[in-house]
Design brief:
The chain is about 70% helix and about 0% strand. The protein has about 375 residues and is mostly helical.
Length: about 375
Amino acid sequence: MIMYLLMMLTAAVVSYFATWGARMIGNRLELFSPIRSRDMHSHQVSRLGGLGIFAGFLVALIVASQSFFVKDIFRGNDSPWGVLAGATVIVVVGLADDLLDLRWWVKLLGQCVAAGVVALWGVRVTIVPFIPEPIVIENEVVSIVLTAGLIVTTMNAFNFIDGLDGLAAGVAIIGGAAFFLTAYWVHRTAVLLDRSDLATLLTALVVGSCLGFLPHNWFPSKIFMGDSGAMLIGLLMASAGIVSTGQISSGLYDRINGIPTIIPILLPFAVLFLPLLDLGLAVVRRTAVGRSPWSADRGHLHHKLLDIGYSHRGAVVLMYLWTCILAFGGLAFVVYPWQIVLVVDLAAAAVLAVVTAWPYLRQRTPGQMTGPQE
């Protein structure tokens, strides 16, 4: 645990100062994107924050490759460097989009290239969790395509949720922390000669990099992570989830409270539920009116919270709370009997649902409360 926390701290410190440097460069060179109608800010802000997050991840990964215990992850294993290569590609694509506003299909092509690099050189989906037995993917082409598809989907999910100051970074910190604790606990309690784990390291670096970035991005934001930062987080989170899913057949999850085969995939989806939900709703909403699913609008979940009366910070904190319930509620399945966890999770979700809807309910008149809705 200590070495993972040291790597997390390294990523946080480097990310903080690198983001500060990106702020200075962006402001001095006036590298600002035009303020769009859907944007929630009214002043010009640099979108180079992804460089700070990437710097934290890059430096901490290199330090980890030479550090006690965690360096065993790199021994005879090209996967960490494959993830780094894919991360480099997506940061370049994201920066180009932040500065030049690429056409949607060009950005999607860049995402596919980055995801393909990870799938070819880094991690790869080899097992699909299923009951009663996991499905083993033996066809290499299918494995690569499935891996790339999952990574592209997750990248876009995080990109879509990045609409309020501190939102994407905070969601990544909370979800990544739950994922980190789960991956660490599973390996810590296993009978293994080598307990180092790539999924645990990746989530530690994501959490650390976002912790260093968040002080610059908290409302009112001094810098945005941009597409480069949001897509980078998505790529790293997806890669960590794919690594943990591939460990199902190793027996690491066989002791987990009656649901061993779905835990590795349950938690990543619980962590990413809000971004994935926002992505799915956006695709349905846009295609229903004949628009491209990649076209921008002002219909995301965080926009809806603002529309019903939440302040900027209030909407962000509420999204944090939902992420806590989903992420740590998923983590609880690893530790406690699933029957108890399910009841507690549902109760917490019900309470937070009422809290979420309260501003809307409070604005309605007594007649509207009982009358038919249009």
